[in-house]
Amino acid sequence: MANITEEYLPFYCLGRQERKLLKHDISESDVAEVIAKGTPLRRALEEACERAAVPFQSGRSKRKWLDENADDLQGIDPDAAYAAYLQGRVDELAYVLEPDVVSELSGDDEDDDEVEGEEGDESEGDDED
After folding, report:
1. Does residue 116 carry a pLDDT above 60?
2. Which residue of 7, 11, 17, 18 pairs with 84 in a disulfide if CB–CB is 3.0 to 4.6 A?
3. Torsion of CA 98, 100, 104, 108, to 10 degrees
């Protein structure tokens, strides 16, 4: 993550909280291949997600966000605020994709099924409404 100063941290958090993930065509198997060649997991994910964010760095998406947030951008650099917001969205996408990439690396989905079965055991929790 880039260094985000305190005044832009709320915009980064807005990006992390965005319900709609960045549009992307990231292949978990392609990221897994990059990792298998020696790139650390986090760096491979960040690079893939940052490439996915390039179309959002300018143009309509940026203008729309700047217009929608104009009141909150008074007295600060709007470009830096948008960059922090977009970095938050990139980091959230990487966070969401990480389990799938790890699963792709392990090539074993059976472990996921066991964990889901343990968590989904209804005999332990009758607090569902």
Report:
1. no
2. 11
3. 120
